[in-house]
Design goal:
Elements (H helix, E strand, L loop, with lengths): L2 H9 L21 E10 L2 E17 L2 E12 L4 H4 L1 E9 L6 E10 L2 E10 L4 E8 L2 E4 L3 E2 L5 E2 H10 L10 E8 L2 E16 L5 E11 L8 E9 L6 E7 L4 E10 L10
Parallel strand pairs: 10-11
Antiparallel strand pairs: 1-2, 1-16, 2-3, 3-4, 4-5, 5-6, 6-7, 7-8, 7-9, 11-12, 12-13, 13-14, 14-15, 15-16
Helix pairs in contact: 1-3
């Protein structure tokens, strides 16, 4: 399972009782940019291994205004020899009802390539899916879906937008995603509150979560990924820790631009 997918799902939150669909942008706005530095524990030394950027833009699709979610993850060129990552996810969202119009994944991780393109048809409850990988030729079979299924990038923003004011420790929080031409149920678990100091020496009040990972090219699977998000209306992830097949990684917030709400969690 690819890095940017696991990272994005781990970034954000879902309300613990009600199953809802994306219906607001209360936690973010067009123009927001979140930039992260990925570090890797190599022979007991933490080194900068790559970057991940999450962007929200304005765009057009078939002459209509849309919201463009865009996420890019790259390994550092100095570490490409070890494990080269070039990931990009894009999603177009209807700004009137927040339905997904189109979503795309284009990834290359350690030489394993994957491409996915999904067109959502809400009237027919069907997704026109085109997918292929280094190990599988092009597949074009429709995927049926009920309400609140997401491509992985839109799932990240959906989860971030929901109210967690009533969440309790050990609450299990489900989310349904489309990936690799399959419908995949995942969940995150709430672990309480902690203060986190990042590499830029800023301290934030945070909510802590663990995330169920699917075993794949980088991760072992299980709840071996932890994420801390700001305890305010933005719910911005500031630190992620994960065990991977060889070693471990930490992901730190590097820069926050055009956030919608004041960052009240900073101390």
């Amino acid at each position: 399972m690819n890095f940017l997918f696991q990272f994005s799902i781990a970034l954000f939150l879902l309300q613990n009782i009600h199953s809802q669909c994306l219906n607001n942008f209360n936690a973010y706005k067009t123009g927001e940019l979140l930039q992260y530095t990925v570090t890797y524990n190599w022979q007991f030394v933490w080194v900068e291994a790559g970057t991940v950027d999450f962007m929200i833009k304005k765009a057009q699709y078939k002459n209509d205004d849309v919201i463009h979610f865009d996420a890019v993850g790259n390994s550092s060129k100095n570490w490409d020899w070890m494990y080269k990552v070039r990931d990009r996810y894009q999603s177009y969202i209807n700004p009137n009802n927040y339905n997904i119009i189109w979503a795309e994944r284009n990834t290359n991780e350690g030489g394993y390539r994957a491409y996915e393109s999904y067109f959502f048809d809400y009237k027919r409850k069907s997704i026109n899916a085109y997918t292929e990988t280094s190990k599988r030729p092009l597949k074009n079979n429709p995927i049926s879906f009920d309400s609140c299924y997401y491509d992985v990038l839109t799932a990240a923003y959906y989860l971030r937008s929901l109210d967690i004011s009533n969440i309790k420790i050990n609450d299990i929080i489900p989310v349904k995603v489309i990936l690799d031409h399959e419908k995949i149920p995942l969940y995150i678990r709430y672990l309480g509150k902690e203060n986190i100091t990042t590499r830029n020496k800023k301290t934030y009040r945070c909510h802590k979560f663990s995330c169920l990972l699917v075993e794949g090219t980088m991760f072992k699977g299980g709840e071996d990924l932890y994420v801390w998000v700001t305890d305010d209306e933005n719910k911005i992830p500031v630190l992620i820790k994960a065990e991977i097949l060889v070693g471990s990684i930490k992901v730190f917030i590097n820069e926050i631009k055009n956030n919608k709400n004041p960052i009240n969690a900073e101390q």
